[in-house]
Amino acid sequence: MQSYQEMSKEELLKEKQTLEAEYKKFQQRGLKLDMSRGKPSQEQLDISMGLMDVLASYVDLTCEDGTDCRNYGVLDGIQEAKVLLGDMMECNPDNIIIYGNSSLNIMYDTISRSMTHGVMGSTPWCKLDKVKFLCPVPGYDRHFAITEHFGIEMINVPMLSTGPDMDMVEDLVSKDESIKGIWCVPKYSNPQGITYSDETVRRFARLKPAAKDFRIYWDNAYCVHHLYDMDQDHLIEILAECKRAGNPDMVYKFASTSKITFPGSGVAAIATSPNNLEDIKKQLKVQTIGYDKVNQLRHVRYFKDSHGIEEHMKKHAASLRPKFEMILNMFETELKDLGVGSWYSPKGGYFITYETLEGCAKSVVAKAKKAGVVLTPAGAPFPYGKDPKDSVIRIAPSYPSLEDLTTATEIFVVCVKLASIEKILETK
Fold it and tell me: Quick one: 386 exposed, middle or buried, by C-beta within 10 A (0-12, 13-18, 19+)?
């Protein structure tokens, strides 16, 4: 098919008329469809219902070391949970602290602690004139919300097919002492689904930051969220690489079971160096006497080991894979030859990113909303909600049924076409 750019004004107007008629039909259906957030579907939540049957009033709630999970104590998490999440995170259990239900909460705590008490004896950030963070874009909006909340200046770093632009990262951190960290979703990134290359990870490990308290916030949220059994991305382990490079303290690594079992009822963890762990525990022992050990035990007894998690995630993949494939196939069929945008085909994670022609993302989102489809707001994957090119749209396929998602994608495609034609006609 001829691309829209190649069409004459008359051809575009004719195509626009046809699309508007199609769009009107969708509007008349009074649809209410939501592709705005990466929430597990009811089908996915049902996969984990066995978790509720593991513990009962008559069950022994004692750990292998004799700890009674009903009582106070065990600041950094029960050993069995450390082993389970350590295997999932590819880390030594001794380098892990088990928290509550949310890795986002750990990240917030980590930033907050750095603001008020500094990092391993460094000046608290709140006493500095300027604090900056690097933000690979497009990225995770809730990361950016944390740093914005604390008044930290955010600097955009473009995402490449191999991960963040490391030339830019290396240059910035080596020259500017006020840059204290970088947000990373290194595997099946939010929202593009990119996995950092081996070389990117090694370059992170070899960074020479001007700030001694610079830290890499390695949010490996999708470490086990593959779509395929035999075609998976591989991410080399950052803590080992940092230790090898002589930078053992430079990374905080986060993960949780939020999208593995139940969001809000999962188990989260941070993995880092012994020095960082000691620093964290100074605050932690004031903040809490220990997190929910009963829930930690529940997860351990349900999964038993990392193989249990792996088999469990195959069920999630079976639910998500048809949805991802449907969207990507429709994009391939309906949009590929039109020259109206681009997209990635991720092998895992929770999102698909569509990049429109420059200046079209807000228009697509607005049109979709008027036709009954809620998308993530345009600009959300950027600090301060500002996409400089107004082109990135995050699509979350997980929550709707396949039937509803198909309808929503059909509407999305029509909206992309309409917004693109309107943009091109401005120059015809």
Answer: exposed
Number of Cβ atoms within 10 Å of the Cβ of 319? 17
pLDDT of 319 higher than 90: yes
Half-sphere exposure of 176 (CA within 13 A, CB side): 18
Could you tell me the sign of the dihedral formed by the alpha carbons of 328, 384, 209, 170, in that order? positive
Let me know: does 35 contact 393? Beta carbons within 8 Å.
no
Those residues with Cβ within 8 angstroms of residue 72's Cβ, 6 or more apart along the chain or in another chain = 289, 290
Q: Which two tokens stand for residue 56?
A: 């009962």
DSSP secondary structure string, 195-215?
---HHHHHHHHT---SSTT-E
Number of C-beta neighbours around residue 383 at 10 A: 23
Q: Looking at residue 2, what is its pLDDT? A: 87
Structure tokens at 112: 């907050």
CA distance linking residue 25 with residue 15, whole number of Å:
16
Domains and CATH numbers, the chain: 4-44+310-425 (3.90.1150.10), 63-304 (3.40.640.10)
Residue with tokens 């957030």: 37
CA nearest to 22, candidates 418, 317, 424: 418
230: Cβ contacts below 8 Å, ≥ 6 apart: none
Tens-place pLDDT, residues 179-191: 999 999 999 999 9
DSSP secondary structure letters along 108-138: HHHHHHHHHH-STTSPPGGGSS--EEEEEES
What percent of the chain is modeled with pLDDT above 90?
Answer: 99
Question: ∠ at Cα 115 (127, 153), nearest 5°?
Answer: 85
C-alpha dist (Å) from residue 73 to 3, 58, 290, 295: 65, 22, 6, 14
Q: Is 298 helix (H, G, I), strand (E, B) or coil?
A: helix
Cα 228 to the center of its chain, rounded Å: 19
